[in-house]
């Protein structure tokens, strides 16, 4: 996405008109340019969020289907073939020497070649006795 950062000084980000002198923090020549620019870029953000949420939902559907079939381990290329998007997860952390990934309530571990210990988690209720 081009933000026209090369025009770092003196020109409106939206229309490219020269800006008045003396305001180095100024980015737009007018409020209409400002709102037009934000409208376009907020639109991109919404599109991006929609795409990511869509990919997460699709990922979750794929994983849920595998779990429903009793699959707990699958080779990465096979999972990719099903349309799984490895970039879209809801969390990631290291557990001992494994990498644990989550897509909403489904978690799995991933090695270089496969996804394993695929399972759907029960909703985790914080127990009052355990400190984090
Ligand atoms: Zn302008």
Q: Could you name the key traits of this structure?
A:
five-stranded antiparallel β-sheet, 19% strand, binds zinc ion, elongated
General description of the model:
The chain is of the alpha+beta class. It has a domain at 31-120. Helices cover 33% and strands 19% of the residues. The protein contains two helices and five strands; from the N terminus they run H-E-H-E-E-E-E. The protein has helices at 31-68, 76-81; strands spanning 74-75, 91-95, 98-103, 106-110, 114-120. The protein has a five-stranded antiparallel β-sheet with strand order 1-5-4-3-2. The chain is elongated and about 65 Å long. The chain starts with 30 loop residues before the first helix and ends in a 12-residue tail after the last strand. It binds zinc ion (ZN). Zinc ion is lined by residues 12, 14-15, 17, 28-30, 33.
Short description:
With 132 residues, the protein is of the alpha+beta class. The chain has helices at 31-68, 76-81, and strands spanning 74-75, 91-95, 98-103, 106-110, 114-120.
Provide the low-confidence segments as ranges.
Answer: none
| Number of DSSP helical runs | 2
Strand content: 15-25%
**Cα gyration radius (Å):** 23 Å
Number of strands: 5
| Biggest beta sheet attributes | 5 strands, antiparallel
Whole-Å distance between the termini? Answer: 41 Å
What class, by secondary structure content? Answer: alpha+beta
**Pattern of helices and strands:** HEHEEEE
Q: What overall geometry do the principal axes of the alpha carbons give?
A: elongated
Strand order of the largest sheet: 1-5-4-3-2
**Mean pLDDT reading:** 85
Q: Can you list the ligands bound to this structure?
A: zinc ion
Q: What is the share of helical residues?
A: 25-40%
């Amino acid at each position: 996405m081009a933000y026209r950062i090369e025009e770092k000084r003196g020109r409106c980000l939206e229309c490219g008109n020269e800006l008045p002198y003396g305001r180095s923090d100024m980015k737009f020549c007018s409020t209409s340019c400002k709102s037009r620019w934000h409208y376009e870029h907020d639109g991109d953000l919404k599109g991006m969020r929609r795409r990511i949420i869509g990919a997460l939902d699709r990922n979750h559907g794929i994983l849920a289907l595998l779990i429903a079939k009793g699959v707990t381990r699958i080779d990465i290329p096979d999972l990719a073939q099903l349309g799984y998007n490895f970039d879209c997860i809801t969390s990631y952390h290291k557990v001992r020497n494994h990498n644990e990934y989550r897509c909403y309530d489904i978690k799995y571990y991933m090695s270089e070649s496969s996804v394993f210990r695929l399972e759907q988690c029960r909703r985790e209720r914080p127990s009052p006795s355990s400190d984090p």
